[in-house]
Amino acid sequence: MKLKILVLNGPNLNLLGERDPEVYGALSLSEINRRLKVSADELDVSLKFFQSNSEGELIDLLHQHRKTVQGVVFNPGAYTHYSYAIRDAISAIQIPVVEVHLSDIKKREPFRRKSVLAPVCLDQISGLGWVSYLEGLKRLAAELRGKAGRRQGRKSKLLKALIAGVMGLFLGRESYAFNMDVIAGYGMPGAGVTGSGYIGGIGSQNLAYGIQFNAEASSRLSIQFGTLYSPRGFSVTNSGVTSIYSTQALMFPIMIRHKWFDLISIGVGGYFSHSFIQGSWDVIPSGVTTMNLDDSGVILSGDLRFKILPLVNLVLDARYLYGFQNLNASSAFTAYVRDLQVLVGLRFGK
After folding, report:
1. What pTM did the predictor assign?
2. Catalytic residues
3. Which tens digits make up the pLDDT trace of 222-231?
4. Which of these, 132, 150, 251, 308, could form a disulfide with 230 (CB 3.0-4.6 Å)?
């Protein structure tokens, strides 16, 4: 993006080329401006030019452009040596100003050797003829681009720090461990059954137990997988007749877990349940010939871990499961399975 810079000239500079050419050179102000435009294109800078013989108008121009340009190249003329009003204006606009002079003011008359504006300007360049303007423009462009780069660098560092903080919050430090849980608990399943003529009921409560493994990818993230024995049971009603079905099943859950404060972890994942033996009905529903009780779904879990020995932890785990199950292959009806499991176990390992 192009920088916008104001080139401002003070009193009597409109007479350049006519006034004391042995001191100020033979170039007119319009010729200096033309040369600056050529150099501005090379510097990728956009310039605005103004000249005034009035102190008040110069102050007004500084005020008016304080929010439309990024900096000012300023030859204040004789106001350099005594205008505290212009000094205050430069200080007030809070954008960088480079003071330039065609002649070397330090080798001029004693009253010209002091600049009351220099202390509030970014730099002072003098004695190079029209090139003073060019060097002032280069100095200003370098400062502005450097400041933008530093600001971008600070933003980049802040963004990196923010990303690192978020990554640290969710990933933690590098840490690899593998441990095993021996766990058991109580399941409170339910099956909402839909199908032609069928309505569903809450299934029987049952025990669940098994082994699961935890592979830590970092100090906060781990992958948990395992096998639980989890009997499945529910009831359906058709034409006023209630039938209760029960079977033995193995459940295979897998979750990604996120640990907080080395005490609490939250997991999300899925499961697959397979009935490894044929189940039984107390009353076979009309039209049911075959059963398929393999179901799958999602898991939400939260657990608490309490260290009781250096490599042994007590684990309390509560899980909510929601899945889908095709109950009958010949006259299909579907169960929407919901399980709440509360498990307690021992974790062996780090």
Report:
1. 0.52
2. 24, 101
3. 899 999 988 7
4. 251
